[in-house]
Amino acid sequence: MPAGPPKDWTQGPARFIAAGALGGASVVGLAWAIASGRTPPDRSPSHVAPVVGRPAVRAEPVEPPAAAAAPTLEPGPAEPSAAEPGPPPESPAPRPAPGPLIININTAGAAELELLPGIGPALAKRIIDHRARHGRFRRIDDLDAVSGIGPKTMERLRPLIKVD
Predict the structure, then answer these.
(1) Partners of 49 in the beta sheet?
(2) pTM over 0.85
(3) Which residue did the predictor score with more confidence, 93 or 9?
């Protein structure tokens, strides 16, 4: 038996067999993961704390027309939390959640009317059409004349609307 260096498997056809076996196993593993609906675990760095309790998008209150000025909301004192660090110095402080907006049904557009509970695009259009045909609402109860608004809807809307 001749003595010599051991045969290097990376130089011959064995490397192609090894590459094929590893590639095949990868394809089978990926296909199995996709078919079973499994997703890989979150691999975010452990030293980065996730932001909890803050919405990704903050909704800003809709400004009513100048004729129907709503009361201004003043931000309350910020309460620091041990679990959640405050915002970075360059970002503004988060606003407190606004209270219910009082909407003037004589001046509100469709977008503002749709903010009211139970008022969708079709009902907002009917309110605007009624206002255009019959003139301004003199009382809140006049809104009951609009088709699709009944006693239950009026009960929900009464504290959220006004007429001027």
Answers:
(1) none
(2) no
(3) 9
